[in-house]
Design goal:
By secondary structure, this protein is mainly α. 66% of the residues lie in helices and 6% in strands. This is PCI domain-containing protein.
Length: 260
């Protein structure tokens, strides 16, 4: 089963759970969802009405945790640790994985120093083990560890949940793409119409050439027939060459002179 299909099934599972609970009962759903090793998207859970209703209540901290995993990073957690629940080891691992995805959104070459600072990693060996075992093996990123340049070259990174402030630019980007696609479609249709027209013209031109060739063939055939008939008439005339030849082929008799 691929990652996308697994994500869809997990999201559907947790959305159904969240929809059937309310208040403090949602704490277990939030904890399970943010700890699951295969789930990296949380916007759908955040959109569940029962979860939205936690805003402004004594249980709003669970909503904050979900928002942290949907859009935040490990640095965000450290900055707000005093008002958030302590994360379990699986949650801490998940948030570090999500932090790598956030960094990879804007930079395809991530220096080791930056990664160690953002992930709270003590040394290069620990960082490389984390990138290999917890990120690349998990399928959320692909890339190359460059020990000489001390950086991680990102070739692929899974996308995170879009932040609310990103929606405007995303809509604009999609609108621009739609306009470009429409213009491209019009251009393709025009080229197809031109190609059809040229095909028809070529077809007509070919037919004209074939007609001319047939006309030349007919003209040549008529001339050849006329010449042949002319020769037949010459050789079939009476007293013609054949009779003359036959006359010459007969030996002539000499007449002896008469002496008187």
């Amino acid at each position: 089963m691929d990652i996308e299909q697994k994500q869809e099934e997990l999201i559907d599972h947790f959305v159904k759970q969240a929809s059937s609970l309310s208040g403090s009962a949602l704490a277990s759903v939030v904890a399970e969802a943010t700890s699951h090793h295969s789930l990296f998207a949380f916007s759908e859970i955040l959109a569940v009405p029962n979860v939205i209703q936690l805003e402004g209540t004594e249980n709003s901290v669970y909503l904050d945790v979900l928002r942290l995993f949907a859009h935040g990073t490990w640095s965000d957690y450290k900055s707000n640790a005093s008002r958030l629940p302590q994360l379990a080891p699986d949650q801490a691992l998940k948030l570090r994985q999500l932090t790598v995805l956030t960094l990879a959104e804007t930079n395809k070459v991530l220096p080791y120093d930056q990664l160690m600072q953002e992930l709270d990693v003590a040394n290069v060996r620990e960082l490389e083990d984390f990138l290999i075992n917890e990120c690349m093996y998990a399928g959320i990123v692909r890339g190359k560890l460059d020990q000489l340049r001390k950086c991680f070259e990102v070739q692929f990174a899974a996308g995170r949940d879009p932040r609310p402030e990103q929606l405007g630019s995303m809509i604009q980007t999609l609108s621009n793409w739609l306009v470009t696609s429409d213009n491209l479609l019009i251009s393709i249709q025009e080229k197809m119409s031109w190609a059809d027209k040229m095909t028809e013209l070529n077809k007509q031109h070919k037919m004209e050439i074939e007609d001319k060739v047939d006309e030349v063939k007919r003209s040549y055939s008529l001339k050849a027939d006329s010449d042949f008939r002319g020769h037949e008439e010459i050789y079939s005339e009476s007293g013609g060459v054949m009779d003359y030849d036959e006359d010459r082929s007969q030996p002539k008799r000499r007449r002896h002179p008469i002496h008187r």
